[in-house]
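[Meeting: bench + compute handoff]

Bench side (C.D.) handed over the final construct sequence. Compute side (W.E.) agreed to return the predicted structure before the next meeting so the bench team could plan truncations. Sequence as handed over:
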Amino acid sequence: MTTTPASSTAGTTPAGAAAPASPALTTEQTTELERRRAARVALRLRHTEHLTRLMEERADLRGVHALADFVDESVRWTA
């Protein structure tokens, strides 16, 4: 039987234990958080749109970058 040293598990939450509650956010913080989330979603959509358009225009780019191929294929399958 092997045991792990106490120092290697310091600061971790045991499986099944609840994570510590985060402090309540103010209305201003919540509004800022919502604004940032919306901006992140808009940026992700814009990048996906541009990448898809680029891949349509430049078929020679297929196979160059695995992540670009993955995003392009994902968008085409969901369209």
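W.E. noted at the follow-up: The chain has a mean pLDDT of 78. C.D. will use this when planning the next construct.
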